[in-house]
Design goal:
Number of domains: 3
CATH superfamily of the largest domain: Metalloproteases ("zincins"), catalytic domain
Number of strands: 11
Helix content: 25-40%
CATH topology of the largest domain: Zincin-like
Order of helices and strands: EEEEHHEEEEHEEEHHH
Radius of gyration: 22 Å
Strand content: 15-25%
Largest sheet: 4 strands, mixed
Structural class: alpha/beta
CATH class of the largest domain: Alpha Beta
CATH architecture of the largest domain: 2-Layer Sandwich
Length: 235
């Protein structure tokens, strides 16, 4: 789809998209922080730009503090981030190793620069996915057997706003960002989804079952709510 990039006051970058199906102007902010305006295909880009300017106060109110990933930072349970300045390179690149997420970047770029951080975030998500696919299905199976529960399938995905899900067919989906939680909270989330194989909706029966699966369910639930399913606090 056709698009153009603009910069508002305060340095806010906006991408304006033209869509054939649009009849109105729409403003959204992606989890990554990207500001998007969708306009009808026939409308001029200026219309989208003026619309973004008119909503600038709202955009600023939605901006989240940017968490900068640092050298040596733990990425999930098995990796640490390595940010290496390398002479002779023209752009930041990444490589996922057994125990590290290696990001190599030109010497003229600071580790906290947008380009280096983008590569570091993408590589860190790959590391979390690898860990999650290796560890979460095994742990889910163990907890299911221990509690006499069954499920149809388990899939690891990158979810927005939730740690997992379970449908009526007992297909379970787990968020790769679970790898950033303490192990007892990971177990809580897995048990939560396993409980949904018996009671689909939240209610007295569901929480009664959770109390049987883990006596400290109330405390674990409260602690889990203190975390967000994003990369180390920021997308």
């Amino acid at each position: 789809m056709p698009s153009k990039n603009f910069v508002l006051e305060d340095g806010l970058a906006v991408t304006i998209y033209k869509r054939r199906t649009n009849r109105n102007l729409r403003l959204s902010i992606a989890p990554s922080g990207q500001i998007r305006v969708s306009i009808p295909a026939w409308a001029p880009y200026k219309a989208g730009l003026d619309f973004a300017k008119s909503r600038q106060d709202w955009i600023l109110s939605q901006q989240k503090p940017v968490v900068v990933l640092g050298h040596g930072q733990a990425i999930g349970k098995a990796h640490r981030l390595s940010l290496k300045p390398v002479s002779g390179t023209t752009k930041a690149t990444s490589r996922l190793r057994e125990t590290s997420v290696e990001v190599r970047h030109p010497t003229h770029l600071e580790p906290g620069s947008a380009e280096v951080q983008k590569v570091a975030r993408e590589a860190s998500v790959r590391a979390l996915r690898k860990q999650a696919e290796q560890l979460l299905p095994q742990r889910l199976e163990t907890l299911a057997k221990q509690n006499g529960l069954t499920y149809r399938s388990v899939t690891v995905k990158r979810l927005k706003g939730r740690w997992g899900s379970c449908d009526q067919q007992t297909n379970i989906v787990l968020n790769l960002y679970l790898m950033q939680l303490p192990w007892d909270l990971i177990d809580y989330v897995l048990l939560h989804e396993l409980a949904h194989t018996q009671v689909l909706r939240h209610g007295p029966d569901f929480w009664k079952l959770m109390g049987k699966l883990t006596p400290s369910a109330k405390d674990l639930r409260s602690r889990t709510q203190q975390y967000q399913p994003v990369l180390n606090g920021s997308e």
